[in-house]
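Chapter summary example.
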Amino acid sequence: MITTHIDYKVLIDFFKNKPKSDDEGGNDDENLWYYTIKCYLKSKTNLQIGCYNSNLPYSNFINDLTTGRENSKLYPIMTNSILSETPIIENNLHSVFFSELNEAQCNNVKNKCGLLIGNLDNYKNNFNDLLGFHKVGILPVRESSPLFNSWNQLKDFLLPYTDVIIYDNFLLSDSSLLKSNLFQIIKNLSNSASVKFNILIFFKRKDENDLLRLGKIYESINEECIKSYQINCNLGLILTDIKTEFKEHDRGIFMNYMRIYSGDSFNYFKEDGSILTSGTDIHFQFFSNPNYFISANAALINIKNIFLNAIQNKGLTKPFIGFTENRLFNNI
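The structure predicted for these 332 residues follows.
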């Protein structure tokens, strides 16, 4: 579950802008937005409130957030800002911050930790992004209905992140498709990262020849994508063992606040940009929905077992290369 750290003045601004009810002539969209966020704060996120002052207005609204929280936690209320110190990434992988600090101060923190940081000026837009508000969560990738027809469309859905894991058994099976798929995925992902990020890619070993060419694949990605697009990241590749007891069929791109899921390999497009897949859907699952967080973690537990099996391999030729540490495996 995501943890939301929010300063009191941001909450005051949110509550004082409570829209009118339908009976009072209120707007349906405004009411939906307000109560969706209120529901999220009350029961779909762990919550910590900073800069608390009981003498400030709307304390009754704050009290409402502290009761009936179902499975979400309420952390001790702070009298100083939730950004009084720069968040430690390892302790806050799935944390978001809405501070009363000004935009320049918040951007300075964001550029140090890479997490989702908002303030009084932009918290509404940040909540929209975090909740995927007014975004279609599933898009078809089909010639008959190509609503998702370019990896450039990722920018409409992505959130900040520090770590990413791509799991797709067949993503690297055809080197002619790397530039039109994997390279474009990495390039578009990088636009949402404000710090050097870790990217770990899992793909299936077909035979022993894959082990021998692992270095060439790594070099190709590093030279033709990472260096070519000047992407600031740590790259690692893992060859999954076809004989291991741990297997993962589903394809996924996992990040701090969301998972991108596909029923088919992410090799969607040919070299000319036309659709290659015979028909699938791409799913954007935001962890502001606790059920998506739980299902993503369940998949990551299995992928972590595959990872541990690979790095403990005692063969002469190792089934991994590059930077293999990834914080998404922490605490699962």
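To summarize the output: The first strand starts at residue 3 and ends at 7.
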